[in-house]
Specification:
heterodimer, A: 535 residues, mainly alpha, 67% helix, globular, B: mainly alpha, 57% helix, disordered N terminus
Chain lengths: 535, 56
């Protein structure tokens, strides 16, 4: 008797299709439905966060106060970051994990499907609370997404809502991570050993551990902010004997691993796409796994590179500088392996591959500026300037966001059963890539020239490059409407996708029908099938 | 898919593909341990500052 026969005997629940109407989405425990919910949610938040970015860039189009008052501008920079990090990139990766991890492992679903439903439905509540603060008398949070005290403690009573929302986002992330770890360890089909798992699963496994370790620390920090604000404690208040710099240490103990939470699943996606379109096995699979684990480990011992200007002992500065630089070694291994995979491959350049190559090139640019920022004496000059903004946007937009777009183009034929419009996809890539560089590259120049971040006004000397960056922002923003059009068009119809979809695709997800049936791998795949379809 | 699926053990040293029915604890211990770790980190991050920093 197969595994599936044993597990599902008499379990009628698994043999019906989706419930009709809204109930399907409210009560669903199906990993594909929940993955779809996460992905649509993150797309919606992408446009909300993007609209905030455009307000910022519209204000910065010319020097002087142009459109919004400075307090609202500060709210926009703060909310844009919170929405993009917690509402777009993280949920989108969780959505992809929900859709793909069970199929990649030959599992029928996630290990904890009801928890999965709960993990998702917390998110819309959390973000409704968070966004509602913009309509409150005291306005939204405006002290930066890092919530540094004492500044952040000076905001009005919407602060309590922000802290409440952040706690809920954290609970959702931790529950989702526990589910992913449990799925990977408990639900793999027999024969799917750890070292046969796709890199996307590996990177998510490591990311889930990072989330479980760091989100509670962040929650602890914001709980202490809450008690400082409302219950008379002085954790971070110097007047009461507390230490505001301590908050920065706790925040960045979470915040730096968070950076890798936002990029490690992207590495997994790119490691899936490049071999497919290079028609070669991934170069150095084992080294990719070890490099991912090394990056995760190092991410815990570099946090104070965000704080060089707070003043710390020379030995600490040196430690954090060198440990940060060390991250470039495993990251370099990854970039080398992607290039080596492409080397002498029979490459074709469909839209997912274009976004993957764009990722490799532009993420590397962001990585190199990160290396510059790791050098303590240089960082003391760069800190708080637009150079930092350029750095992390290169990592996150043509990095994380590009990987999400690449993943959507790559897997959407499997999700919908339809091929997307390749011509529109390529137009989307080229318009995005031109405008994303017009948007973010000039920020290096104004940053090196000393333009501070998080300000609504600036000196005349920065005017030209800011105008160019703003033009790039609107171009990039409108290019993403094309993405929505391509996705909607694909969902509604199009040329039928084959089961394999891509000629060079490897993995169990390509062995099921397109579109993927509501329930997959109710019977575990055979060992022969697994051996034929692993990296 | 309900939550009462059986864990699949992928250890290739096991010859049989059919796992034995497992206890509630065996099924849920991993997520429970991870949840306890997460809650511990939350508590420790606060308590360590209350007592660690306060005592310094």
């Amino acid at each position: 008797m197969s595994y599936s026969d044993t597990a599902h005997h008499g379990d009628d629940h698994d043999h019906h299709g989706p419930a009709p109407g809204l109930k399907r989405w409210l009560y669903t425990t199906n990993h594909k439905d929940i993955g779809t919910l996460y992905l649509w949610f993150s797309l919606l938040m992408f446009f909300i966060g993007g609209a905030m970015a455009l307000i910022i860039r519209a204000e910065l189009f010319q020097p002087g106060i142009q459109i919004v008052d400075p307090m609202f501008f500060n709210s926009m920079t703060t909310m844009h970051a919170i929405v993009m990090i917690f509402g777009v990139v993280m949920p989108a990766f969780v959505g992809l994990a929900n859709w793909m991890i069970p199929m990649m492992l030959g599992a029928p679903d996630m290990a904890l499907p009801r928890l999965n439903n709960w993990s998702f439905w917390i998110m819309p509540f959390a973000f409704t609370i968070m966004l509602s603060t913009l309509f409150m008398d005291s306005g939204g949070p405006a002290g930066g997404w890092t919530l540094y005290p004492p500044l952040t403690l000076q905001m009005g009573d919407s602060f309590a809502f922000v802290i409440f929302a952040i706690h809920f986002m954290g609970i959702s992330s931790v529950m989702g991570s526990i589910n992913i770890v449990a799925t990977i360890f408990n639900m793999r089909a027999p024969g799917m050993t750890l070292m046969k798992m796709p890199l996307f699963v590996w990177t998510w496994l490591i990311t889930a551990y990072l989330l479980i370790a760091t989100i509670p620390v962040f929650a602890g920090a914001v709980t202490m902010l809450l008690t400082d604000r409302y219950f008379g404690t002085s954790f971070f208040s110097a007047a009461g004997g507390g230490d505001p710099v301590m908050f920065q240490h706790i925040f960045w103990f979470f915040g730096h691993p968070e950076v890798y939470i936002l990029i490690l699943p992207a590495f997994g996606i790119i490691s899936s796409i490049i071999p497919t379109f290079a028609r070669k096995p991934l170069f150095g699979y084992d080294s990719m796994v070890y490099a991912t684990a090394s990056i995760a480990f190092l991410s815990f011992i570099v946090w104070a590179h965000h704080m060089f200007t707070t003043g710390m002992p020379l030995a600490a500065e040196l430690f954090f500088m060198f440990s940060t630089m060390m991250i470039s070694v495993p990251t370099g291994v990854k970039v080398f392996n992607w290039v080596a995979t492409m080397w002498k491959g029979a490459m074709t350049f469909e839209t997912p591959m274009l976004f993957a190559i764009g990722f490799v090139i532009m993420f590397t640019i962001g990585g190199l500026s990160g290396l510059m920022l790791a050098i303590t004496p240089a960082d003391i000059q760069y800190h708080g300037t637009y150079f930092v903004v350029a750095h992390f946007h290169y990592v996150l937009v043509p990095g994380a966001i590009y990987s999400l777009i690449a993943a959507t183009y790559y897997w959407i034929p499997k999700w919908t059963g339809n091929m997307y419009d390749e011509k529109l996809g390529k137009i989307h890539f080229w318009t995005s890539t031109i405008f994303v560089n017009v948007l973010f590259f000039p920020m290096h120049f104004v940053g090196l020239a000393g333009m501070p971040r998080r300000i609504p006004d600036y000196s005349l000397q920065f005017a030209d490059w800011n105008m160019i960056a703003s033009i790039g922002a609107f171009g990039f923003g409108f290019a993403q409407l094309l993405f929505v059009w391509v996705v909607v068009k694909c969902v509604r119809g199009g040329a039928k996708a084959t089961d394999e979809v891509w000629e060079g695709a490897v993995g169990l997800e390509w062995t099921v029908a397109s579109p993927a049936p509501y329930h997959t791998f109710e019977t575990a795949p055979s060992r022969q099938l697994i051996d034929k379809n692993h990296f | 898919m309900s939550s009462d699926v059986l864990p699949m053990n992928s250890d290739e040293s096991q010859a049989a593909d059919t796992p034995k029915p497992t206890s509630w604890w065996a099924r849920y211990r991993l997520p429970i341990i991870l949840a306890v770790i997460a809650v511990s980190f939350y508590v420790v991050s606060i308590v360590s500052i209350m007592y660690g920093r306060g005592g310094a």
